[in-house]
């Protein structure tokens, strides 16, 4: 994305957001209760969080269990009254003003303190800061505002995790977007390209997306309202959450480790195309020297291959 030739209004709205929020960190304390992890793991179709833990259909995890990489996303969820949310259902704490009303999770980076994981039943403190609000132009010349926030998570021993997130805000649609329905080619994503790659398939449903939205207290309508997706946002179906794909990528990384309690040093990830409910897609994982790459592949409605998310995990 380039920043040249950005209209003055876009620059002003990005600067207005930055000036409003740059010196106003949000600090919250929360008990990391076991019920959220239990329900997230079941939503992910994982009856056990770790290989040696109990079946989560029958019991919650004991106090002190390390929270798996990415699972912190079900804590510190938005705390807003209904009439404080945006028209699209989102928390507006770091949203620019209209007409930049179409929000998507674009990517980010997480860095863990490997010797100090967040743990179930312990208290943690989250501090959220606005890092930047940048006006951009997209590949097709559309106007964007890219917002980056940094969240730090601390426990009684100090810093446990730094989580940087990027959101892209696009201008509202002034006329309906052309929608292309899925074809049979959506059914089969690409196979591994060489013997060093490992694959895992995913298919999210409206039910799995509803459960994840509920766990993360995320009322963003693109994840559950098909009329909103089609008529307002220009999506052909309800959209799979970026954080849900991120957690699945981290779980895939964890599952290929000898010790599934492993915590990576970091992950850098980028969302490049949406996946939709009912659309099959495939993770291809490839291990290197000290790092692991994961890509989520699918097919567009026209039948062409697409990459929906990429991640680089530093072991």
What characteristics describe this protein?
315 residues, alpha+beta, ten-stranded antiparallel β-sheet, 5 helices, 10 strands
Verbal overview:
The chain is α+β, with helices and mostly antiparallel strands and 315 residues long. The protein is built from five helices and ten strands. The protein has helices at 8-21, 34-43, 206-215, 226-233, 242-255, and strands spanning 26-31, 102-112, 123-137, 143-155, 158-170, 197-203, 266-271, 280-287, 291-299, 305-314. A ten-stranded antiparallel β-sheet has the order 1-3-4-5-2-7-10-9-8-6. Helix 2 (34-43) runs antiparallel to helix 3. The protein is globular and about 55 Å long. The two termini are 29 Å apart. The mean pLDDT is 92.
Instruction: Calculate the terminal CA-CA distance, rounded to whole Å.
Output: 29 Å
Q: Determine the number of helices (DSSP H or I, runs of at least 4 residues).
A: 5
Low-confidence stretches: none
- Average pLDDT over all residues: 92
Question: Using DSSP, what is the number of strands?
Answer: 10
The Cα radius of gyration reads 19 Å
User: What is the helix content?
Assistant: 10-25%
Strand content: 25-35%
- Briefly note the structural class of the backbone: alpha+beta
General form = globular
> In sequence order, what are the helices and strands, one letter per element?
HEHEEEEEHHHEEEE
Strand order of the largest sheet: 1-3-4-5-2-7-10-9-8-6
Main beta-sheet annotation: 10 strands, antiparallel
- Described by its quaternary structure, the protein is single chain
Topology summary:
Layout lengths: L7 H14 L4 E6 L2 H10 L58 E11 L10 E15 L5 E13 L2 E13 L26 E7 L2 H10 L10 H8 L8 H14 L10 E6 L8 E8 L3 E9 L5 E10 L1
Helix pairs in contact: 2-3
């Amino acid at each position: 994305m380039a920043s040249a030739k950005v209209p003055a209004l876009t620059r002003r709205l990005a600067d207005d957001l930055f000036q409003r929020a740059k010196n106003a960190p949000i600090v919250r304390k929360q008990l990391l209760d076991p019920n959220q992890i239990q329900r997230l793991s079941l939503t992910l179709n994982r009856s056990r969080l770790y290989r040696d833990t109990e079946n989560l259909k029958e019991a919650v995890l004991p106090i002190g269990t390390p929270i798996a990489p990415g699972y912190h996303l079900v804590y510190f969820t938005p705390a807003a009254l209904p009439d404080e949310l945006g028209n699209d259902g989102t928390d507006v704490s770091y949203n620019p003003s209209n007409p930049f009303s179409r929000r998507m999770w674009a990517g980010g980076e997480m860095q863990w303190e490997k010797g100090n994981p967040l743990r179930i039943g312990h208290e943690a403190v989250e501090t959220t800061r606005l890092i930047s609000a940048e006006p951009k132009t997209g590949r097709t010349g559309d106007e964007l505002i890219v917002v980056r926030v940094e969240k730090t998570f601390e426990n009684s021993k100090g810093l446990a995790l730094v989580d940087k997130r990027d959101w892209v805000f696009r201008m509202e649609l002034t006329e309906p977007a052309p929608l292309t329905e899925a074809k049979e080619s959506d059914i089969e994503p690409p196979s591994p390209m060489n013997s060093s790659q490992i694959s895992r398939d995913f298919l999210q449903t409206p039910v799995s997306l509803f459960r994840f939205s509920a766990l993360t207290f995320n009322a963003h309508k693109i994840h559950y309202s098909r009329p909103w997706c089609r008529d307002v946002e220009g999506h052909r179906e309800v959209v799979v959450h970026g954080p849900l794909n991120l957690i699945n990528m981290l779980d895939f990384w964890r599952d290929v480790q000898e010790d599934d309690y492993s915590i990576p040093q970091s992950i850098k990830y980028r969302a490049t195309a949406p996946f939709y409910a009912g659309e099959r897609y495939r993770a291809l994982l490839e291990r290197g020297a000290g790092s692991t790459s994961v890509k989520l592949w699918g097919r567009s409605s026209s039948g062409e291959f697409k990459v929906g998310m990429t991640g680089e995990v530093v072991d």
